Amino acid sequence: MGFRLANVDGRAVLVDDDHCYDVHDLSGGELGPDPLTALAAGVKLHELAATIEDAEPASKLADVVLGPPVPTPRHVFGVGLNYRSHAAETGSELPTVPMIFTKFPGCIVGPTADIVIASDTTDYEAELVVVIGSRTKDVAPEDAWAAVAGLTVGQDVSDRDLQFATKPAQFSLGKSHDTYGPIGPVVVSPDLVGDRDNLHVRCEISGEVRQDATTADLIFPVPELVSYLSSVLTLHPGDLIFTGTPAGVGRPQGKFLRAGDTVTTTIDGIGTLTNRCV
Questions:
Q1: Which residue segment(s) compose the domain that 18 sits in?
Q2: Does any domain span residue 71?
Q3: The pairing of beta strand 76-80 with beta strand 240-242
Q4: Would you give the DSSP letter of residue 93?
Q5: How far is CA 245 from the centre of its chain?
Q6: What is the mean pLDDT of each run of 10 residues along the chain (278 residues)?
C-alpha cells in the first residue's frame, strides 16, 4: 500500500485524509521517529501504511504545523534548464546532459515556512522533487524508479544577482540562502501518483498564475536524472533531486518576489506549498 509521509515536530508521521499517525508508535518502535529512518525502511513503510485503518491517530492534520518531510538530506541536487519551455524563455540551447548544481541542505524548510527575501532579484521556481529511498549506485534508467521512495513539491528559490555574479555563473550559493528551499507537504510514494511522467505543476504569486505546465515537458525525466547522478556518486535515502522548473519564472519578466507576496506551488496528486515572503 502507498504512503504519504510528513514531519511533525521532527517526527515521521503517515498522513491519511485529515489525520496523522506517528510512525514510531504505529510500528511499536521498529521505525522512526526520524523521517530519514522511516524513508529508508522501504517496504516496511508500505506495510505500515496498510495498518492505519485500525490505528489511533496521533493528531488532526489541521492542528499541526508540518516541517519539511525530509529535514536533513545528505545531498540536495538541482537541475538547470530541464524544461523545454524554460530553455526557450531564457534563449538557451537544450542541454545534451543534465545541468546539475547543488542546493546546500541548510536552505530546506517546510511547506508553510516564510521565505526570507535576501535580495531584490529573488525568483521563484516551482519544481517536482524526487526523494531517494535506498542506497543507489550505477542504476540503469529502466530500474531507477525502484530507488525512489517518493515525490514531493519544491520551490527552488533563487537570488539571481548572486547566481550570475560571476562568469561563468555559479548557481549553488544563489539558491541556498536560508529558507530558499521549501518542500512538502508530504512525500508521496510513486504508487499513489497517477501518471508520474505527466504531472501538472502550477505556481501562483499572490493569486497570479505565473507557471502552469506538466512534467511531460522535462528534457531529462526522473529515471534519467536518478541514473545519471548515481553514475557519478552514491545516492542515499533522503537525498533530494529538484528536477527543474517550467517557463514563467520571474527573471525574464522582471517580476521578482517582494515582501508580502505569497508563493503557492501545487503539483496535482502530491500537494501544495504556501510560503509567505518576508
A1: 4-64
A2: no
A3: parallel
A4: P
A5: 11
A6: 96 96 96 93 95 94 98 98 95 96 98 98 98 98 98 98 94 97 98 95 98 98 98 98 98 97 98 98
